[in-house]
Fold this sequence. Notes:
Distance between the termini: 9 Å
Radius of gyration: 17 Å
Number of helices: 6
Strand content: 15-25%
Strand order of the largest sheet: 2-1-3-4-5-6
Shape: globular
Helix content: 25-40%
Number of strands: 6
CATH architecture: Alpha-Beta Complex
Structural class: alpha/beta
Order of helices and strands: EHEHEHEEEHHH
CATH topology: Maf protein
Amino acid sequence: MLQILAATTNKHKIQEFQAMLxxxxxxxxxAILSPDTIPGFPELVENGTTFEENARLKAGQAxxxxxxxxxxxxxxxxxxALNGAPGVYSARYAGDGATDARRIEKLLKELxxxxxxxxxxxxVIALAYRGDIVxxxxxxxxxxxADAPRGxxxxxxxxxxxxxxxxxxxxxxxxxxxxKISHRARAFALATDFIHRELQTMDDFEFV
Length: 208
């Protein structure tokens, strides 16, 4: 079995990734490990200025420490009227330790009086093996910001993001739709395609 360490403490992301793997790669051939299975796993430094830089930094650190394959994602929301903010600072937009509700509140306040509500979610996934970056994968979904939060599903900015082609937010559409069209789903689809190709060509492909 191929075991890959997910360089994130976000349990929502780990669940999403495992669900997508189970749906796209032969069942039972790939398992995602969470950092709490690695003794003494350190806090990862992410001081890059782009999603690509942060994903590569985190994946490389995790793979070196655990001495196994690891992947990391860096994702966020870019809003046109805010010149791309919050961008790579999406999780820290309202300060360290702020709740999703507080980040959304700040975002909507910044957009008061602005008619341009265009936005996009971006996700970059980096796959590393023992510190060396193997590949990176980028996914995006475009849409617009709602006037107020709607729906209770998902996490982060999901309750205010309406993807193009829909009239509901990710918070209303739920996991069934989000798992098919989200930025993370698109980036992870590319990553799982890569993993699947490797599994097909290497019978003993195993980063353990």
